[in-house]
Structures are given as structure tokens and as C-alpha cells.
Amino acid sequence: xxxxxxxxxxxxxxxxxxxxxxxxxxxxxxxxxxxxxxxxxxxxxxxxxxxxxxxxxxxxxxxxxxxxxxxxxxxxxxxxxxxxxxxxxxxxxxxxxxxxxxxxxxxxxxxxxxxxxxxxxxxxxxxxxxxxxxxxxxxxxxxxxxxxxxxxxxxxxxxxxxxxxxxxxxxxxxxxxxxxxxxxxxxxxxxxxxxxxxxxxxxxxxxxxxxxxxxxxxxxxxxxxxxxxxxxxxxxxxxxxxxxxxxxxxxxxxxxxxxxxxxxxxxxxxxxxxxxxxxxxxxxxxxxxxxxxxxxxxxxxxxxxxxxxxxxxxxxxxxxxxxxxxxxx
Length: 329
Fold this sequence. Notes:
By secondary structure, this protein is an alpha/beta fold. 33% of the residues lie in helices and 17% in strands.
């Protein structure tokens, strides 16, 4: 069995969970048994993402009671040495990281951020590193989605993770209200937000149909998190901000490469209202961002990652066996 150690919650968001789900879909499709281990912070929507895929969720402390032969670690809060403990027991470890290895030993490291291939962190001997766009993890729904043709009235989609941990939704609604141009907007929010009269802005709770909403959009306003890779794959123009420090690497890479319009940091996002209005008004300004990203993410990253994880599992040997010791009792 392959375990996925990740958490979600109102402050953590759901990015770790969603990229793990993408890899889990690939492994299940290959006939592997998988199990999620962690705390989803009481988010019913996050729990439903596992339930609708028949992916079991168990408390993290049960990891050592399960018959695991591989584990995926995707968390910023795990104590250092967690990966080393699993490796010592002969359990293959894949660590999903965002630049910083956070003291975790692993057989395979995955950093799917743009430009990650240029970073050269020190790795444990024998470890494999997968870095950059070829290894981006995409869910089934995203891989099967196709971008819709543009309409006469621009369609804008706004979302900031599954929880809007940075509290951006209401502020972006204010920015949209200030736009003096025709558009139709869907704003994803788990909590009520006051909307202006007129009906141009529609509020929607977190949804299982986000992939199709992205594919139907002419412009997506979001944070530079894991959803950006989905937008690049679909070729949908995006305007991005950054909420957390770990998103700054991706933000800089996206904006400097011309793959997304930069709205600046979340703290001062209202200053980008004129840019947002220009992107809504002019297809010739926004469409190059979608064109530049299209083809960069081929959708097969999860296949390459699964290959590497399963190869590491085949090589994994418990520490006592490597040292020629007797089987521990």
C-alpha cells in the first residue's frame, strides 16, 4: 500500500491535498492500493474529494500500523527526520517540496515549480530529484478538460485555493466592481460575500467542477499556487498574486516568463485594478498569456512521478537488511 501524508485546512489550504490526489489517481489506475493520512481541518469539501474517488482517509498516527511499502510526504509541518524513519524501515519515500527540502530524507524528491530544475539542493546519497514542468501533477478532470472558445463578453473566474486563506475574495470583488467594462464573473468562495447589484458577478461555493469553469474562462484571477499549472496546461490566461512566501518563487517565474500577468502581492492587490480592467477589456492583452503557457505542461507529469516512485519502492531495503543484521523482533 502507498500512503499519502498531507493535511488541509482553513489556513493551510488544499493545494497539498489536490496534487496528492492527482498522483493517487495515477497510482490507482495502475492497480495500486493507496491511503491518505492526515487531518483535513474539518473541510467537508476536502473530505468529499477523497470520498468521491473512494480514497480512504486515516489519522496520521496510524501510518506505522499499516502495511505501507511507499509513502508520499507533502507537508510543511512534518518534523525533520520523518522521511528518514520510513526509509530506515524499507518504506520508499517521495517528498513533494517547494524549494526547501525541510530536513526530510527521501528516495525521490519532487519540486514541480517552474525553474525548480535550476535549483541544486544537497540531496541524500542515491536520491532522485524530479524538477520543473515535466513533473507537474494534474487531476483527471484537468487532463480531460478542453478550453472553450472566447465569447463576446469576457468570462472571468476568481478563486484563491479551496479556503481563501489570504482573505482575498471580498477585495477582488471590490476590484471587479470598479471595472468599467462588460464582463461576467464567477467568484469561488466558501463564505458569503456582498455583491454589487447588476448581476455581473456570481458567487459560487467550492465546486467539483472547477476544471470546467477554468476551461470556460477568458481570464482567471488566482494566487500563484498549484492551480496555476492547471491553467497553463489548459492555455487559459491568468492574472496572479501571491499570498504566502512559498508562492513567491512561482509568482516570479510566471511573471518574468510572460506566462501570467502579475497583480503584485496580496497586501497591495487593489493597486492592480487598472491592469485587471485592461485585461478584461482587451483580448489582445490577455490571450498571449494563455498562448505562452499552452503546451508547457503536457499532463503526463504524474505518470513520470509514479514511475519514479514505483522504481524506488522496488529498490527499497530496510536498514537492518542493508547492514546485514538479523530481522528485528
